[in-house]
Design a protein that fits this description.
Elements: H1 13-18, E1 33-39, E2 45-50, H2 52-56, E3 61-65, E4 88-89, E5 95-101, H3 104-113, E6 116-120, E7 148-150, H4 153-158, E8 162-170, E9 182-188, E10 191-196, H5 201-211, E11 219-222, H6 238-250, E12 254-257, H7 260-266, E13 273-281, E14 287-299, H8 310-313, E15 320-330, H9 343-361, H10 365-371, H11 389-400, E16 413-414, E17 417-429, E18 436-441, E19 447-451, H12 460-472, E20 479-482, H13 499-518, E21 528-533, H14 535-539, E22 547-559, E23 565-575, H15 582-601, E24 607-608, E25 613-614, E26 632-637, H16 661-673
Parallel strand pairs: 1-12, 10-11, 14-15, 19-20, 23-26
Antiparallel strand pairs: 1-5, 2-4, 2-6, 3-5, 7-15, 8-13, 9-10, 9-12, 13-14, 16-17, 17-22, 18-19, 18-21, 22-23, 24-25
Helix pairs in contact: 9-16, 12-13, 15-16
Length: about 700
Amino acid sequence: MMVLGHDHVRVDGRDKVTGVARYGVEKRPDDALHAWAVRATVARGRVTGIDTEAALATPGVVEVLTWRNAPRLEDADDDELQVLQDDHVAYRGQVVALVVAETLEVAREVASTLDVRYETEPHDVALAIDHPGLYAPEQANAGADTDSARGDVEEGLASSSHVVEAVYETPALFNNPMEPHATVAWWEDGALRMVDSTQGTTPTAQTMATLFGLDEPQVRVTAEHVGGGFGSKGTPKANPVLAAMAAKVTGRPVALAWTRQMMFGLAGYRTPTISRVRLGADADGRLQAISHEAFSQTSRLEEFTEQTAEYVRHMYDSRTALTTHRVTQLDVHTPSWMRAPGECPGAYAIESALDELAHTAGIDPVELRRRNEPEVDPETGAPYSSRQLMACHDRAAELFGWAGRDPRPGVRRDGHWLVGTGVASSSYPAMAAPSGARATALPDGTFRVGVNATDIGTGARTVMLQAAAEELKVEPEQVDLHIADSDLPHGAVAGGSSGSASWGWAVAKACRALRSRMATERVPDEGLEVVVDTAEDLKGRASLARFAYGAQMVEARVDVRTGEVVVPRWVGVFAAGRILNPRTARSQLLGGMTMGLSMALHEEGLLDERFGGWANHDLATYHVAANADVGDLTIEWLPEDDGELGPLRSKGIGEIGIVGAAAAVANAVWHATGVRVRSLPIQPDKLLDRLPG
């Protein structure tokens, strides 16, 4: 019975659209208190006093936590989590107090009027390519090396017939899932219980155990339904810590949720990036040199380095290459994971530079990429498990109608619209992490499967059910699936596009082992159970370069009167192993491409350097793509049978859709207008005075 690879409706779909599904703070006990964070109004300094007496005298207020009375925390190797431990203010918006009350309204009102006094210090919040505080971190995040060199890139540039040198910039970008970060916490007999909006209950439980000096089994975290994350919930933030502290002090359950405005200062974000790119090619367009120098920011509390230069290391063949990361500590909150961290801004820079090189060399942009296809991973020398990048480009060109494209910019006009087309590649690692699963056969012929997967809106619950049913050779309706509970066997975080590959491997292994036992054993009244882990399986894999690939082609139109940019037509073709559920897969790819459109044309965190905070910290002023912005999106995937990926033979698809998307739009805008915008987003003020009449 083959249930993977076929459409399956989301098993939680009806509950979500009818309101039956409950998220985060909606799952609070009736006697829960409500907490509201008080945030610093200065960018740097220390708190000299907080008038808690008036607040505590307000009817309904139960407690006000400050650095003076908050529980002491152990070190969990993340200073952003050391909330209310001292009087230091590291950035504007940092939590300096927590009001706990009987109702949400009282907590919010008292928090808004709490008198907090500060001693301020000069602050520094602006990233620049020549910032004196730039340094080389030990490594970029996700284990990427800070620097990498192959050959003499200066010699490669000097010997090139065509050279492009440019600086590309992306602004601060904010994850903004529909459900904000939210937690309900309570204590039972010295054990901590939590409902948390998280992308991984296991790492959250582990972190909370460390912070509060508990053994890991003493902490249980569940996340039955999570309303999105885009990476922001991939590691614990301050909300579960504060909720647990308040519950510990008051002896009652406490519910805490960020507002949309708080999300811009407490939930992580994609750091602004600056990329200095130099490409050199011979007369035939074959790369002789790639240089990508990446610059980003972090906080003074915790180092986070966006792995911006990692993308190009594995993408194109070049005789010489140099990639570096530099970061500077500023008086800002710590950047964090956001969909395709590193690859997203890195691909924008590299795929834009390749478009510039194609124009300089007089070579079609697709053909230029074809001429620089590597035979093995340029960074590691490892063979690819599979690589269909150019097959994706060829199919995209067929669907889009790329053949016969006039390479000249600014020559195609339709009334007051300038029309252009652009292309970019996409790539994302095909990763898997150790995970466990439990499978139980019951006497009535049904099965219970437990895997600590977290469904953040991607359809993971549905795909894990399909995987279990396929291995057990039963209908999905015969499987009772349990997910998102730290009491289940260890589960990898829902991040890095590795969820289905990680959890699915464990589910397949557990169900296969259970079927094997059932062939020789009777199912007892209490059930027949198998528990597995995939750590050793992953260690035994061959050393190969495993990536998903894609090609994206965009039509952009620019109004010469207003500078408005619209994208009426977009084609994306991807090679991502076995597609486990076409219905949910298309949704993920469409979402990633739309997020890339939003990045290209709309999204921009605007920093007020005077006060050190984000000026546009809501969805009225931080603009994201809406339905009216999205035209005709055509999405396809190529058949791909890669036996080096694990039992499901799948590659992650949650992030690849955004990789290269902004570059495809930017390249199309250039082709339409002849104006190259190298600093996102591409908005009318960057075009209008440079457009033809």
